[in-house]
Write the structure tokens for this entry.
Amino acid sequence: MSDGLRELLSDAIAAGEARSAAWLVARRETILSQGAVGAAPDAIYDLASLTKPLVTALLCARFVERGQLTGASPLGEWLPALGRGRDEGAAPAASVQEALAHAAGFLAWLPLYALCDRPDDALAAIGRAQRGGARDVVYSDLGYIALGKLLEQVGGKPLDALFDELVAQPLGLEATRFRPPPAWRDRIAPTELGNAYERDMTRRLAAEDGAQRFSASEKARLLSYDGYRRGLIQGEVHDGNAHFLGGVAGHAGLFSTAEEVWRLAREFLPGGRLLAAASLQCFTRNFTSGAKESRSWGWMLATTPGAVAAGLSPAAFGHTGFTGTSLWCDPVTETVYVLLTNRTFPIRPSLQEVRRAFHARAARLTR
């Protein structure tokens, strides 16, 4: 009997909501549904912001277990380049745990490639722009860029090397990495023809600077920057900041297949190989109680209003990526739901309704 997932995703692609899709639903060690539409089942996708939990949050938890880091550690102690920000109480004074839960006071996004002459200037630019004040949840790429740099400081190696050594190799992942080699290009789903979307975001940011966050020279840089990619983006990271930072960053840059995303996601559920059982509580506990979103280390919780977790238990946690990727884990049923698409080729809708329908149908497989 069909589970309806292929039909659902085929209809979404026919309607122009994505170019291709690969999915996998598995409970414990058993794959319940797997397939692809418009791509091979082993196609590699730019995971975009799934990098945040799968790399950055996971490595932070590993370093805490090893005693190299604590959730209470102030970011500024490890990253003096952040400075103090322009406001008292700005992000550098926040803790690692607050940054992991998007509650550290970081701005959501800045085009660092337009504001900085070189990647080494990125942390200082992030620090100068922080808003400070009350630390409500603000989903932030910048906070995770800072966390990625922190991990490099703690681990003494580049982030991609840390991920490979501490995660990919122990799990036997062969198609999950930053900066995929050129030989993989034909297996990788393309993401956009040029960076027109970020170009428009940058120009709007400069034009709508009501908070006067940018100096006159910074506004000029934002408006005059013209280093955007114009060709087909395939086999290199879609995100402009991650590309500027060499393809490796704490917020984006990881590539993988649906099956290897599942194998990696299992590490956040009971029985994983990389973390002790007590550490898994960091991914299910709400560290932002009373805020507009319920956030754990790296993940959105299913109790967040509007979360695309139809049919999953209230204990579920998940994340999406701008390129069209999605991953949810349910510790109650020990089920992983992977949905990878390339909705940005060209930029398409948010896929929220498609994701809700996907989870509602896929959740029936666990009953």
